[in-house]
Specification:
With 72 residues, the protein is mainly alpha-helical. It has one domain. Helices cover 36% and strands 8% of the residues. It has a two-stranded parallel ribbon. Strand 1, helix 1 and strand 2 form a beta-alpha-beta unit. It is globular. Pfam families: HAD_2.
C-alpha cells in the first residue's frame, strides 16, 4: 500500500502507527513533492506516475468530503 499525505513526516508516522496502517504501507509521498496541496490532486497524480499505476486499478481513501475532488 502506498500512502499520499499532505501532512508532515512526523504527523504521518504517528497516524500510521495509531491506525496500524503502517504495517501495510511501503511508501509515503509527502506534500513537499508537488507545488500545490489539497484539494488539488497533484500529489496523487505524482504517486500514480512514480509507481506506474493505472488510476482505474486504485482505491482512494480520504478523511473528509474534500478528498472526493482529489480522487477524480
Amino acid at each position: 500500500m502506498e500512502t499520499v499525505r499532505d501532512a508532515s513526516r512526523k504527523n504521518i508516522r504517528a497516524r500510521l502507527k495509531r491506525t496500524r496502517l503502517g504495517e501495510f504501507s511501503n511508501t509515503t509521498v509527502l506534500r513537499n513533492r508537488t507545488s500545490r496541496t489539497r484539494p488539488e490532486p497533484d500529489s496523487i497524480v505524482s504517486a500514480l506516475d512514480d509507481f506506474r499505476v493505472d488510476p482505474t486499478k486504485t482505491t482512494m481513501m480520504g478523511d473528509s468530503w474534500r478528498e472526493e475532488h482529489r480522487a477524480r
